[in-house]
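My hope is that you will study the protein record below before we discuss the fold together.
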Amino acid sequence: MDLLPLLSWACIVFTVGMFSTGLTDLKKMRESKSSDNIQFLPFLTTCLNNLGWLYYGILKKDQTIILVNIIGALLQILYIIMYFRYTKQKRLVSSQTLTAVIVLTCGWLYFTMFLTDRDIQLNQLGLTCSVVTVSMYLSPLTDLVEIVRSGNVQCLSFPLTVATFFTSTSWVFYGLQLNDYYIVVPNTPGILTSLIRLYLFWKFASVSQSSPSYKPVQI
């Protein structure tokens, strides 16, 4: 039985679901007319990551990677636009966005003008995207340490944790089917960090429910 089509659909459904968790923040911004307690950089870095993987999918001619990252990039651009609309720190957001555009442009020029061999392009781009993805998955570890100390999981998003677990798992199996370790390796930390978060929910959820409620900040 060929599992690749099934894994392809799993990657599409779970990844789009994970990206769609940002709609919760979008709803909060529209209702409150404010971007307070919502972080901007995750939207920006995820958008850059989506565009990098999109180019990787184009070079690899992988329709699953292309489709997922087109949808992801469009959603992140929507979140960025809405954040800019409601934030009070428009100058800071503009400078961060401009920096991201410059980095993206420099990366595109490097991969298109200085690397002419397609295999070298694919390998270097895969490595770059893998490093960025791993760093994004590992970046909340310091917050997880603080949660262990405080015993409060209210700053974690349970739907995002579940979505990340299923997304990372589906991509790992998809990458194994293709023998593409640029897909397998960066998604493995996503499984591990999700399991850690789920354990923290199981261990501290009852403690958090008995404590005063605060407006959560997604990690």
Observations:
- The first helix runs from residue 4 to 20.
- The chain has one domain: 3-205.
- The mean pLDDT is 87.
- The two ends are 39 Å apart (CA to CA).
